[in-house]
Design a protein that fits this description.
By secondary structure, the protein is an alpha+beta fold. It has two domains: 90 residues, Heat Shock Protein 90 (2-Layer Sandwich); 38 residues, no CATH class. Helix content is 30%, strand content 25%. The protein has five helices and six strands, in the order H-E-E-H-H-H-H-E-E-E-E. The longest helix is centred in the last third of the chain and has 12 residues.
């Protein structure tokens, strides 16, 4: 999950910085994280659907119904490459990575949120409940 969030931050930060902050709260047993970038930002309209899957398998199949020889992977690649930013990088997709991040956070009784301003950057914040278990010697058990 962290890999996906960091990869997105780096992809959309042409100049500036990207920062990752991870902490653990023993009281709430929550893992907390933030990925902060000074990239291109996200418009308020897009934040509302950021963690939702933006295309269904049915739509992928029907997107190129006349091209039976095209693999699903190639179809998804074409759908993903519909827009580029000024640095020539892809800036849209089907939302699978962030959708999975949201599902993981929900599975661990947490949440994921986004704060962003266009041309100023984005902060993705997440929490996940992850009780840590210690053995009788006080060492962390895996």
């Amino acid at each position: 999950m962290l890999h996906n969030l960091l990869q997105n931050a780096l992809k959309f930060t042409l100049r500036g910085s990207t920062k990752v902050i991870i902490s653990y709260d023993d009281q709430s047993m929550n893992l907390q994280g933030k990925v902060i970038d000074s990239g291109i930002g996200i418009s308020p309209q897009k934040i509302t659907s950021l963690f939702k899957l933006r295309i269904t398998p049915h739509k992928i199949e029907n997107q190129h119904h006349d091209d039976f020889a095209t693999s699903d992977h190639a179809k998804i690649s074409r759908l993903n490459s519909d827009r580029e930013n000024s640095g020539g990088q892809r800036t849209s997709g089907i939302g699978l990575g962030l959708y999975i991040c949201r599902k993981l956070c929900q599975e661990y009784r947490g949440e994921i949120t986004c704060e962003s301003e266009v041309d100023c950057g984005t902060t993705i914040t997440f929490t996940m409940r992850m009780p840590l278990h210690y053995n009788t010697h006080g060492s962390l058990r895996h």
